[in-house]
C-alpha cells in the first residue's frame, strides 16, 4: 500500500553549481583507496600487506567484530601503502591500479534458487555487505540480526541534490534485480521512497512497495521515511541502502563480479560546468579534479557527500565509499565588518528574515564555510523544531546526549535518528550548536553501553 | 591602514601566552562587535545560516526602539501636561531624554560590567543576551526611580537572576522582570502608588498621576482616558509600556523576522481576552466590568506579552508548550489585575510565575511524546 506523505518542516537550500545531467566517464586512475573513517565504529583486521597483489573483488580486510564482513579491493593492482594515524589506527589502504583489471568471479545461482542464508553469504564474501547500513546507529548492518524492513530513498533533497533516476538510467535492470535479491532478506517490507516528480521511475518499479514524500529537505532522508512509514522501536533494526549500491548488488548477483562503479556529481559554487562523473569507488581525488573545471583564486573545501552531512577530504585524498556527490565550497575564512547587523550583509541567506536575501529566494546562492558567528550558549529560539520533521524533540534529545542519560535518550527516540537528520539543525542554529556531532557521540555512547 | 589591521594589532597582547590573555573574552566581545569572525565550520554542516545570537538580539532591540522613543516622548508629555505652561513635542522629548538616557546608561554600565567580569572569570565569550535585558530594564521602570536603584536592581537581576544559574540560556526567570520584581518589592514606594508614574508628580500638588489600572483598583473609573489614548499610549505608566501601538510595531518586527514566537503572543491575547470577557459577564466591581478589550491595551500587558513572555530562555520551549504557556500568562495577568488590588498590574507577576512553570509545561508535553513512543512499542509487541 503506497502512502503519500507531505513534509512541512524543513528547509530547501538552493546553492549555486548543481550538477547538470551530463555524464562523463573517467578512465581508471593510478591510485584507489578505502577511507576507513567511512565505516563508523569498524575495527579493521588486515588480510593483505604492502606489496601484495590483489584482484578486483579480493578481500583486503574484515571487521574484527564479525570476521565474515569482508571489504574487497575495488581494482586490481598492488597494495601500495597502508596509512596509519594516531595509535596506529588505519586511515587508508591504498592500491596502485595495474589497469589489467583481473577479477574474482563467483558462481551465483539464479534468484529463484537463492534463499536468504545463501544471499547473505554471497553478500558478505563478495564485498557487497558494507553497502547495507543499519538504523539505529547508522553503521554497517549486523548480518546476524534480521531487519524488520529495508528502506531505500530514491531521491535526494539535500542542497545540490543529485538525481538518482539519472544515475540509475543505464543500470535500472541491475537496480531492479538487486531489489529482488534484497526482498528475500527481510521478513517485513522493502520500501522505496520516491518524490512525486519521479513518476517515470515509479512506472518501472511497480513490483515494489513505493511511498511518496514531498516537501523541503530532509524529505529525501531515509531516516524521515522510516519515521513516517515504519518507525524503529527499541530493539528493532532497519536496513538502508543507497540506490546505486543496490545496482552494484544486482550486477553482482547477475554476473558474479563485484563492479564498484560510482556516479559522482561534482558540484558547488566554484565548479564551472558541474556534472556527473562515472568512476570507481575510492578514486584519487586529484585525478578526478583534473577533469573538473574549477574557478581559481580562493581556498576550497572538498566534501565527500552533501554540504550538510558530508566529510571534508583533502585534495590529496580519495572519494568516499558511500557518497554520490563531491561538493566543493569556498572557505569562508574572511571577516565581515558589522556583518551581524540585520540588513547589512545581504549575501548570506538566513531562515530568519533579517536580511534582504529572501527577496531572491528563487535564485541559487553562493554559500561558503563561514560559521557566521561564534558558538554561544543554548538559546531555544525554536529553529530546531522548524527544520526537523519527526515526532521527536530535537533539542531535548541533544541535551540528553550531552548529559549521556541513556534511559532518557531512549525515551526521546534516539533509535529513530541518525546524525544526518540533524544537518539542518547545525545549519540553522543561532547558537552554532554542533548537533550532528553531539548525536553521533550520543549514538556511539549508547552503542558502547548496550551492544 | 584599514580597520581590520588595526584590530589585528590591538589583538596581539590578548592572544594565548601574552600578558593580557585573561582578558581575551573582553577583547573578543569588542572584536566580534566590529566583525563577524573568520571562523569556518570544523565539524557538522559545512554551511551555516547567517543568523547568530548577536543578530537575534539586535533584532529585538530594533523592535524595542519605537516603544522606547515613544516612551521618551510620553515621559516629557506627561510631565509637561501636569504643569500649566504650554510646550512643544521637542520640549517633551528633551525632558524625556534627560530622565531616561541616564537610566539606560546606568543599566548598561552596571550590567555589562558584571557580564564581562563573569566572562573573564569563566573564560568564555561574552553572551549578547544582556544587550536586550539592559534596555528592557529601564523601559519597564517608573520614570522617577533613583538611578542607584536601577543599578542595584540590574546587579541583582544579572548576578542572582542569571549568572547564579550559569549565565545566558540557563536562567529560569526573565532577567529584566527579575530586576523589576526586585525593585518592586525592595523599594515599593518608588514602584507603585499614584505618585510615581508621571515625572516629578509628587512635586506638583493636586495632580493625579495614577495609572488606569491603579484608578480601577481604587474603585474609580478612568473617564478622562479614551480608547485612542490608551492605544496610542499618552497615559501614565512605566516608561515604555504605555503605547500599545508602538509595541505592535515591535511585535510586527519580531514576528515578521521570525525572531519572536507569535504562538506565545497570540496565546497571551487569547488567554487574557477570554478571562476578561468572563469577568465582564460577572461584573461585580470596576475592574471586573472594565471592558475585556481595554484590558489588552492598558498597563504593561502588550509590552510584557511581546517582549518579556517571548524570551526564548525563560518561556516554554516546545510548540505545544508555548501555546499553553502563552494562554496561561494571559489568564493569570487578568486574574491578578482583578483579584489583587495591591498589584493593579498583573503582567509582571503572571510572566514570572509562568517562567517558573514553563519547564513543567514542557515536561508534560514531552512526556506525551514519550508515551506515544511507548505505546507504539507495545502495539508492535502485541502484533508480533
Topology:
The complex is a heterodimer of chains A (about 450) and B (about 375).
Chain A: E1 4-6, E2 23-25, E3 31-35, E4 44-46, E5 53-54, E6 59-63, E7 70-72, E8 77-84, E9 90-97, H1 116-126, E10 133-135, E11 139-140, E12 149-153, H2 164-168, H3 172-183, E13 189-194, H4 199-204, E14 209-214, H5 222-229, E15 238-241, H6 243-255, E16 261-267, E17 271-272, E18 275-280, H7 285-289, E19 293-294, E20 300-304, E21 311-313, E22 325-330, E23 336-337, H8 383-386, H9 394-403, H10 406-411, H11 423-428, H12 435-450
Helix pairs in contact in A: 3-6, 9-12
Chain B: H1 3-11, H2 24-34, E1 35-36, H3 53-82, H4 89-122, H5 129-139, H6 147-162, H7 175-186, H8 188-191, H9 212-217, H10 227-232, H11 244-257, H12 262-282, H13 292-295, H14 301-308, H15 319-339, H16 347-383
Helix pairs in contact in B: 3-4, 3-5, 3-11, 4-5, 4-6, 5-7, 6-7, 7-16, 11-14, 12-15, 15-16
Written account of the structure:
Helix content of chain A is 23%, strand content 22%. Chain A is globular. The mean pLDDT of chain A is 92. Chain A starts with a strand and ends with a helix. Chain A is α/β, with parallel strands linked by helices and 451 residues long. In chain A, strand 6 and strand 7 (70-72) form a beta hairpin. Chain B is mostly helical and 384 residues long. Helix content of chain B is 64%, strand content 1%. In chain B, helix 12 (262-282) runs parallel beside helix 15 (319-339) and helix 15 packs antiparallel against helix 16. At the A-B interface, strand 23, helix 11 and helix 12 of A face helix 2, strand 1, helix 3 and helix 16 of B.
Amino acid at each position: 500500500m503506497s502512502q503519500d506523505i507531505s513534509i512541512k518542516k524543513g528547509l530547501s537550500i538552493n546553492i549555486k553549481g548543481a550538477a547538470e545531467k551530463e555524464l562523463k566517464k573517467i578512465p581508471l586512475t593510478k591510485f584507489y583507496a578505502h577511507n576507513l573513517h567511512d565505516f563508523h565504529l569498524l575495527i579493521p583486521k588486515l588480510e593483505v600487506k604492502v606489496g601484495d597483489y590483489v584482484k578486483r573483488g579480493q578481500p583486503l580486510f574484515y571487521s574484527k567484530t564479525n570476521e565474515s564482513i569482508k571489504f574487497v579491493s575495488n581494482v586490481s593492482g598492488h597494495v601500495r601503502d597502508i596509512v596509519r594515524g594516531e595509535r596506529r589506527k588505519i586511515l587508508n589502504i591504498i592500491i596502485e591500479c595495474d589497469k589489467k583489471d583481473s577479477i574474482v568471479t563467483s558462481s551465483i545461482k539464479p534468484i529463484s534458487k537463492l534463499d536468504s542464508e545463501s544471499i547473505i553469504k554471497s553478500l558478505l564474501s563478495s564485498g557487497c555487505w558494507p553497502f547495507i547500513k543499519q538504523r539505529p546507529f547508522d553503521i554497517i548492518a549486523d548480518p546476524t540480526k534480521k531487519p524488520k524492513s529495508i528502506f531505500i530513498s530514491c531521491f535526494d533533497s539535500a542542497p545540490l541534490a543529485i538525481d538518482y533516476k539519472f544515475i540509475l538510467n543505464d543500470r535500472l535492470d541491475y537496480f531492479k534485480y538487486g531489489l529482488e535479491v534484497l526482498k528475500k532478506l527481510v521478513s517485513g517490507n522493502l520500501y522505496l521512497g520516491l518524490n512525486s516528480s519521479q513518476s517515470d521511475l515509479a512506472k518501472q518499479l511497480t513490483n515494489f512497495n513505493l511511498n511518496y514524500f514531498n516537501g523541503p529537505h530532509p524529505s529525501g532522508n531515509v531516516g524521515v521515511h522510516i519515521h513516517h512509514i515504519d518507525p524503529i522501536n527499541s530493539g528493532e533494526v532497519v536496513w538502508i541502502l543507497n540506490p546505486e549500491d543496490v545496482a552494484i548488488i544486482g550486477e553482482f548477483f547477475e554476473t558474479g563480479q563485484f563492479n564498484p562503479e560510482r556516479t559522482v556529481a561534482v558540484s558547488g559554487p566554484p565548479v564551472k560546468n558541474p556534472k556527473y562523473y562515472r568512476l570507481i569507488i575510492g578514486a584519487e581525488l586529484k585525478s578526478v579534479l583534473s577533469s573538473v573545471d574549477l574557478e581559481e583564486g580562493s581556498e576550497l573545501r572538498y566534501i565527500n557527500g552533501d554540504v550538510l552531512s558530508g566529510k571534508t577530504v583533502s585534495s590529496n585524498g580519495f572519494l568516499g565509499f558511500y557518497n554520490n556527490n563531491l561538493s566543493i565550497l569556498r572557505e569562508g575564512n574572511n571577516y565581515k565588518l558589522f556583518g551581524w547587523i540585520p540588513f547589512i550583509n545581504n549575501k548570506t541567506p538566513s531562515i530568519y528574515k533579517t536580511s534582504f536575501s529572501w527577496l531572491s529566494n528563487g535564485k541559487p546562492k553562493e554559500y561558503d564555510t563561514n560559521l557566521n558567528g561564534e558558538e554561544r550558549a543554548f538559546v531555544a529560539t525554536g529553529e530546531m523544531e522548524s527544520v526537523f520533521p519527526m515526532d521527536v524533540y530535537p533539542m531535548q534529545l541533544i541535551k540528553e546526549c550531552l548529559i549521556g542519560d541513556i534511559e532518557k535518550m531512549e525515551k526521546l527516540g534516539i533509535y529513530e535518528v541518525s546524525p544526518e537528520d540533524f544537518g539542518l539543525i547545525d545549519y540553522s542554529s543561532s547558537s552554532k550548536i554542533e548537533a550532528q556531532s553531539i548525536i553521533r557521540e550520543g549514538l556511539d555512547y549508547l552503542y558502547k553501553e548496550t551492544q | 591602514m584599514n580597520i581590520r589591521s588595526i584590530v589585528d594589532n590591538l589583538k596581539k597582547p590578548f592572544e594565548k601566552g601574552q600578558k593580557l590573555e585573561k582578558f581575551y573574552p573582553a577583547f573578543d566581545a569588542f572584536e566580534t562587535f566590529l566583525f563577524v569572525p573568520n571562523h569556518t565550520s570544523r565539524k557538522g554542516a559545512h554551511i551555516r545560516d547567517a543568523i547568530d545570537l548577536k543578530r537575534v538580539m539586535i533584532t529585538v532591540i530594533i523592535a524595542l526602539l519605537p516603544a522606547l522613543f515613544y516612551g521618551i516622548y510620553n515621559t516629557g508629555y506627561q510631565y509637561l501636561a501636569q504643569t500649566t505652561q504650554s510646550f512643544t513635542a521637542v520640549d517633551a522629548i528633551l525632558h524625556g531624554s534627560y530622565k531616561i538616557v541616564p537610566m539606560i546608561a546606568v543599566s548598561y554600565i552596571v550590567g555589562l560590567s558584571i557580564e564581562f567580569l563573569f566572562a573573564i572569570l569563566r573564560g568564555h565569550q561574552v553572551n549578547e543576551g544582556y544587550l536586550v535585558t539592559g534596555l528592557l530594564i529601564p523601559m519597564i521602570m517608573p520614570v522617577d526611580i533613583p538611578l542607584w536603584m536601577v543599578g542595584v536592581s540590574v546587579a541583582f537581576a544579572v548576578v542572582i537572576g542569571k549568572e547564579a544559574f550559569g549565565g545566558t540560556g540557563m536562567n529560569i526567570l526573565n532577567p529584566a522582570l527579575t530586576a523589576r520584581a526586585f525593585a518592586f518589592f525592595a523599594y515599593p514606594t518608588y514602584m507603585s502608588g499614584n505618585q510615581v508614574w508621571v515625572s516629578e508628580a509628587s512635586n506638583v500638588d493636586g495632580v493625579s498621576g495614577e495609572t488606569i489600572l491603579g484608578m480601577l483598583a481604587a474603585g474609580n473609573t478612568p473617564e478622562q482616558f479614551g480608547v485612542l489614548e490608551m492605544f496610542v499610549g499618552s497615559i501614565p505608566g512605566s516608561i515604555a509600556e504605555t503605547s500599545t501601538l508602538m509595541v505592535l510595531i515591535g511585535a510586527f518586527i519580531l514576528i515578521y523576522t521570525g525572531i519572536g514566537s507569535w504562538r506565545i503572543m497570540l496565546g497571551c491575547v487569547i488567554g487574557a481576552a477570554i478571562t476578561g470577557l468572563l469577568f465582564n459577564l460577572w461584573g461585580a466591581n470596576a475592574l471586573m466590568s472594565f471592558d475585556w478589550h481595554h484590558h489588552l491595551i492598558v498597563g504593561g500587558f502588550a509590552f510584557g506579552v511581546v517582549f518579556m513572555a517571548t524570551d526564548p530562555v525563560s518561556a516554554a520551549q516546545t510548540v505545544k508548550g508555548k501555546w499553553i504557556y502563552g494562554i496561561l500568562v494571559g489568564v493569570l495577568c487578568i486574574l491578578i489585575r482583578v483579584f489583587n488590588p495591591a498589584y493593579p498590574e498583573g503582567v509582571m507577576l503572571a510572566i514570572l510565575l509562568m517562567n517558573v512553570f514553563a519547564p513543567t509545561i514542557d515536561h508534560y508535553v514531552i512526556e506525551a511524546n514519550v508515551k506515544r513512543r511507548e505505546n507504539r512499542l507495545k502495539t508492535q509487541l502485541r502484533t508480533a
